[in-house]
Amino acid sequence: MTPDERFEQLDDAALVRLAVRDERAFEVLVTRHAPRVHRLAANTVGPGAADDVVQEVWIAVHRSLKTFRGEAQFSTWLHRVTLNACYGALQARRNLPFDAVAEPASPHSPVRSSEQADMRERLAAALATLPREQREAVTLRELAGLDYAEIAEVTGAELGTVKSRINRGRAALRAWLTQAGTKP
């Protein structure tokens, strides 16, 4: 078994401890978590800016590994670092979040692409109307796929508060989309 294969079998906590001194362990963490980080960034800042945000996230994570205390799971901490980088990028360009949602790849159909683009625009507009806390909770649940407990850890909110924010956010999105003539 190669050293790289041994690293791949380790859990995140062990990899974090090793990654402080060993770049191969850090590379395994990046490989393991990069798709979720990129998806969250793309759905928050748009696919055009996501690569820059993801790069900033991994630079920040690499710099901060020495001070990561492990009180939260690595993935929870990573989502918070990603959201902070996204908000920084949005603030820097003074733009509303969710201006674009990643478009699925092929098969390409001009009609379907147009419909998807229209739906993305409506969804982006609807998400932009939500208060930041609701938008963040809904995004972490629906786009990043986190469970309620993980969202509570990432946001620092109580579990009941997270559930309430998601429920209110979904209701507001449903109402906005219905009023805009879209069947949610």
From TrEMBL:
> Where's the RNA polymerase sigma-70 region domain?
29-94
Under InterPro entries, the record lists: RNA_pol_sigma-70-like (IPR039425), RNA_pol_sigma-70_dom (IPR014284), RNA_pol_sigma70_r2 (IPR007627), RNA_pol_sigma70_r4_t2 (IPR013249), RNA_pol_sigma_r2 (IPR013325), RNA_pol_sigma_r3/r4-like (IPR013324), WH-like_DNA-bd_sf (IPR036388)
UniProt keyword annotations, A-Z: DNA-binding, Sigma factor, Transcription, Transcription regulation
Coiled coil (residue ranges):
none
Q: Where is the RNA polymerase sigma factor 70 region 4 type domain?
A: 120-173
Name the SUPFAM superfamilies on file: Sigma2 domain of RNA polymerase sigma factors, Sigma3 and sigma4 domains of RNA polymerase sigma factors
Protein family: Belongs to the sigma-70 factor family. ECF subfamily.
* Alphabetized PANTHER family for the sequence: RNA POLYMERASE ECF-TYPE SIGMA FACTO (PTHR43133), RNA POLYMERASE SIGMA FACTOR HI_1459-RELATED (PTHR43133:SF8)
Name this polypeptide is given:
Sigma-70 family RNA polymerase sigma factor
Which lineage do the record's taxonomy fields give for this organism?
Bacteria, Thermotogati, Deinococcota, Deinococci, Deinococcales
